[in-house]
């Protein structure tokens, strides 16, 4: 049988617990030129060495980046506009033939999408993997799944919670361009973002 500590009994224990929960911790003064939101991101226990922690992926969004770069993808208030939402949905991640590797251009676009998702934390997305018409149905379904998963993993590395993203493969079933030549096929090899919740 465990013995209870005396300070958790009665009104005195309740008072001590309330003090701890309501923040009897000392507040640090604001540095010149900072806001309370900026100050909330500073951890008092860690010394400020001026060095940034190394990022696992270029463009990774840490808490400091979010305070500075959220809303600047296309110029501040425009980020919340219908146009910004449409850009998020209409810009697909394109892939090379028979590949699920992300190009540098794709990574830059994913960094913009991660910033938009950081600005809209309630948004859940579905990542759709698509292929061109060449190859078997089974092969294209598997390749589409790899493409969607590659995008999901990169977005997660950028700081977007994996729980906000689901994946699905459509293979060659829904081509963006129904024509039968290289220009059309290059548009159909893609990962598309669909918003599941506002």
TrEMBL record:
- A Pfam cross-reference name: OmpA
All copies of the OmpA-like domain together span 82-198
Family affiliation: Belongs to the Pal lipoprotein family.
Could you tell me which PANTHER family the record lists for this protein? LIPOPROTEIN YIAD-RELATED (PTHR30329:SF21), STATOR ELEMENT OF FLAGELLAR MOTOR COMPLEX (PTHR30329)
Q: Which UniProt keywords apply?
A: Cell cycle, Cell division, Cell outer membrane, Lipoprotein, Membrane, Palmitate, Signal
Gene Ontology biological process terms from the UniProt entry:
cell division
Q: Where is the signal peptide?
A: 1-25
Location in the cell reads:
Cell outer membrane
Q: Which domain of life is it from?
A: Bacteria
The record's annotation in SUPFAM superfamilies points to: OmpA-like (SSF103088)
Q: How does it sit in the membrane?
A: Lipid-anchor
The coding gene here is pal
- Here the segments flagged for biased composition (Basic and acidic residues) are 59-69
> What GO cellular-component annotations does this UniProt entry give?
cell outer membrane
Keyword Nucleotide-binding among UniProt keywords: no
User: Any idea what this protein is called?
Assistant: Peptidoglycan-associated lipoprotein
Question: Mind telling me which InterPro entries this protein's record contains?
Answer: Bact_OuterMem_StrucFunc (IPR050330), OMP_bac (IPR006664), OmpA-like (IPR006665), OmpA-like_sf (IPR036737), Pal (IPR039001), Pal_lipo_C (IPR014169)
Q: What residue spans carry the region label Disordered? A: 32-81
């Amino acid at each position: 049988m465990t013995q209870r500590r005396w300070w958790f009994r009665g009104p005195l224990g309740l008072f001590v617990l309330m003090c701890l929960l309501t923040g009897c911790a000392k507040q640090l003064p604001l540095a010149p030129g900072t806001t309370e939101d900026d100050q909330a991101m500073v951890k008092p226990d860690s010394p400020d060495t001026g060095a940034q922690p190394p990022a696992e992926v270029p463009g990774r969004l840490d808490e400091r980046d979010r305070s500075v770069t959220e809303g600047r993808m296309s110029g501040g208030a425009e980020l919340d506009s219908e146009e910004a939402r449409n850009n998020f949905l209409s810009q697909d991640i394109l892939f090379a033939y028979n590949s699920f590797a992300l190009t540098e251009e794709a990574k830059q676009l994913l960094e913009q999408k991660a910033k938009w998702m950081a600005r809209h934390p309630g948004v859940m997305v579905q990542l759709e993997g698509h292929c061109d018409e060449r190859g078997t149905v089974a092969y294209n379904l598997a390749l589409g799944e790899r493409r969607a998963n590659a995008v999901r993993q990169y977005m997660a590395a950028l700081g977007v919670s994996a729980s906000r993203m689901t994946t699905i493969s459509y293979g060659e079933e829904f081509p963006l361009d129904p024509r039968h030549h290289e220009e059309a096929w290059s548009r159909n090899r893609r990962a598309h973002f669909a918003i599941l919740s506002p």
